[in-house]
Design brief:
Largest sheet: 5 strands, mixed, barrel
Number of domains: 2
Structural class: alpha+beta
Shape: rod-shaped
Distance between the termini: 64 Å
Number of helices: 4
Strand content: 15-25%
Number of strands: 5
Order of helices and strands: HHHHEEEEE
């Protein structure tokens, strides 16, 4: 009964910890059904099996079924992309073509100027302005 309740509670939490405890409870119930050991041995079996599952199985389950890393979207996805300079990019003005759209741009290092036709890397998006760098 305890194993089923722990497994049901795992469906709500999703951390695979309660599921490992449910496995320990079910293993203990199986051993108790076959043998006539004292209660303290049942507690030891529960502890050992649960610990083995938490240490041995849970990390693999988290890697396999855990939440995937967040995929950047919108302007967060633009950092690191290549852009083509359309209009000279200097400290005060400039335009680049980024993913098919025209963006205002400024260089990361305000002392640099990028001529039209230069390929640059978007370092960040600052409001509606792409901060770009030609790189090494």
């Amino acid at each position: 009964m305890a194993g089923a309740l722990l497994a049901a509670a795992e469906a709500v939490t999703g951390g695979f910890f309660l599921l490992m405890l449910a496995g320990g409870a079910l293993a203990t119930a199986a051993i108790t059904a076959v043998t006539d050991f004292p209660v303290w041995i049942d507690a030891v079996v529960f502890g050992v099996v649960s610990l083995a599952l938490v240490v041995g199985i849970r990390p693999a389950m988290l890697r396999r079924f855990g939440v995937p890393p967040a995929v950047p979207t919108n302007i967060a996805a633009l950092s690191g992309k290549q852009a083509l300079v359309l209009q000279e990019v200097g400290a005060n003005a400039g335009q680049v073509k980024l993913d098919g759209d025209v963006w205002t741009a400024r260089p990361l290092d305000v002392t640099e100027v990028y001529l039209p036709g230069t390929t640059v890397t978007v370092m960040e998006i600052d409001g509606a302005t792409a901060v770009v760098w030609r790189g090494p």
